[in-house]
Amino acid sequence: xxxxxxxxxxxxxxxxxxxxxxxxSGSIRSISDMGWYRxxxxxxxxxxxTITSGGSTNYVDSVKGRFTISRDNAxxxxxxxxxxxxxxxxxxxxxxxxxxxxxGPSRYWGQGTQVTVSS
Length: 119
Prior knowledge:
Elements: E1 2-7, E2 10-13, E3 18-26, E4 30-39, E5 46-51, E6 57-59, E7 67-72, E8 77-82, E9 91-101, E10 104-109, E11 113-118
Parallel strand pairs: 2-11
Antiparallel strand pairs: 1-3, 3-8, 4-5, 4-9, 5-6, 7-8, 9-10, 9-11
């Protein structure tokens, strides 16, 4: 099994910054894609950002120019740098990774970390 431990969430004023981290541990041979989702209260979960094993990134339009996703393969960790935060960014943020095994890939989810942006 693979465990994902998230950290870095908190309360910040509009215009501030936070950096989320998600470290994977357990029976890992390698990790392919990594990403971040978020779910606001009473809203559907949405994909925020992804990064491939080759380093290609994608972002939802609402965070482009403000958020940056990155990864440290040696530490099996994915990060989300969030700048110029807005109240609309308030949500629980979940990381996810695709772990690769000889028999195929498996998706794992973090426990979620709360991000609250006040106006």
